UniProtKB/TrEMBL annotation:
Lineage: Bacteria, Pseudomonadati, Bacteroidota, Bacteroidia, Bacteroidales
Protein name as it appears in the record: DUF4434 domain-containing protein
InterPro entries: DUF4434, GH, TAT_signal, TAT_signal_bac_arc
SUPFAM superfamilies linked to this entry: (Trans)glycosidases
Gene3D superfamilies in the cross-refs: Glycosidases
Keywords assigned: Signal
DUF4434 domain boundaries: 58-347
Signal peptide, first to last residue: 1-28
Species name: Bacteroides reticulotermitis
Lineage: superkingdom: Bacteria
Length: 364
């Protein structure tokens, strides 16, 4: 009898010990699924000493699932659904798949690209994004295919041939099926007068609009500023473009594409913070001249650090959004929410940036 009691006691003690070990693990899992620690005090707020709500709110984000230089988070539909909820909370109404494929990797089972030797994806991300966009009342922009040959040769015209087939098949597969299919992103990134750029943007933009009965198109080039270092190992360079030369070159580009490209969202991270007003004023003037919308691609990652790439310091993002509002920009999108602003990002700092953004814009 005494032995049985001792065994019963040891069994209870072992179970209690196991519970003590398992409970924190389960709590951590629950906290991650909610993207916040259970002990967080929502009542505490930062005491801002700058005026709130002076910036242009971010209402769009790229979806970087075929990544070039940031790590995959390996999310499934459950994580993506939660991320769309976080986006919706701060007023994001537009999601842009940055590219439908890069070299041999693809976001959807493209019959054309599979025949060319591209790899079969495990999930149809285009279909998933379109469904989630419909669920959360957002517009989805489809980013064109990037073969990588432009990056190898410096000639953007290489991208025309493949996208001739991609545009047609994507519209047949998804565009006629989903109301959330809201437009096109012509994904070739340039900064200056680039070989084949005007012809490539015009050819692809025209085909996108023709096949989809005029849905909007946009581009997101970068400014060849002091921080446009292209992986040299440095943080800045000496031969940055002047405001005057930037205006001259982009006046020529806009003149050649404005009839088939509806908006331009210049990336804002390659120039210094005291240069924002000068470049933004020129960008808005050119967009107005050619009847285009002027967006800003407010980068939510930090280019001022030797580590590529981490979530940006909030004040830097704030300054860029305030400059965009001063310049009268039409819309702010970001590259990109899921890695650099999401509460469930692999980067802990991203959730804190989300909180600071909500405090500044007084979003509950």
């Amino acid at each position: 009898m005494e032995t049985n009691n001792r065994r019963a006691f040891l069994k209870k003690a072992a179970l209690a010990g196991a519970s003590a070990l398992v409970a924190p693990s389960l709590l951590a899992t629950d906290a991650r699924s909610e993207s916040r620690p259970a002990t967080r005090n929502e009542e505490l707020q930062s005491k801002l000493i700058v005026p709130k709500n002076k910036g242009l709110k971010i209402s769009g984000t790229f979806l970087d699932e075929i990544s070039h230089d940031i790590p995959h988070q390996n999310w499934g539909e459950r994580e993506w659904d939660l991320d769309f909820q976080h986006m919706k909370r701060i007023g994001i109404d537009t999601v842009i798949m940055i590219r439908s494929g890069y070299r041999k990797f693809m976001t959807y089972p493209s019959p054309y690209l599979l025949k060319k030797g591209c790899y079969m994806p495990s999930v149809d991300l285009v279909d998933m994004y379109l469904r989630l966009a419909e669920k959360y009342q957002m517009k989805f922009y489809f980013g064109l295919y990037d073969s990588g040959r432009y990056w190898d040769t410096g000639d953007l015209s290489w991208e025309i041939e493949d996208n001739k087939y991609v545009i047609d098949e994507v519209w047949k597969m998804y565009g006629e099926k989903y109301k959330s299919f809201g437009g096109w992103y012509i994904s070739g990134e340039i900064s200056r007068a680039t070989k084949g750029a005007i012809d490539a943007f015009h050819t692809m933009g025209k085909q996108c609009k023709d096949v989809s009965n005029g849905l909007p198109t946009f581009i997101s080039p970068w400014i060849d500023g002091k921080k446009a270092i292209m992986g040299t190992g440095k943080l800045t360079k000496e031969d940055a473009v002047s405001v005057q030369q930037h205006e001259k070159e982009w006046n020529e580009i806009f003149d050649g594409i404005h009839d088939v490209v509806d908006a331009c969202a210049f990336q804002d991270g390659h120039i210094d913070y005291d240069e924002l007003d000068a470049f933004f004023t020129v960008n808005k003037k050119l967009a107005d001249k050619y009847g285009m919308q002027c967006w800003t691609n407010a980068e939510s990652f930090d280019r001022d650090m030797p580590i590529r790439f981490l979530p940006i310091k909030f004040d830097k993002l704030r300054m860029k959004l305030e400059a965009a509002k001063r310049a009268g920009y039409d819309k702010a999108i970001t590259f990109e929410f899921s890695h650099f602003m999401s509460p469930q990002s692999a980067y802990l700092q991203a959730g804190h940036l989300y909180d600071r953004y909500r405090e500044y814009f007084e979003i509950k």
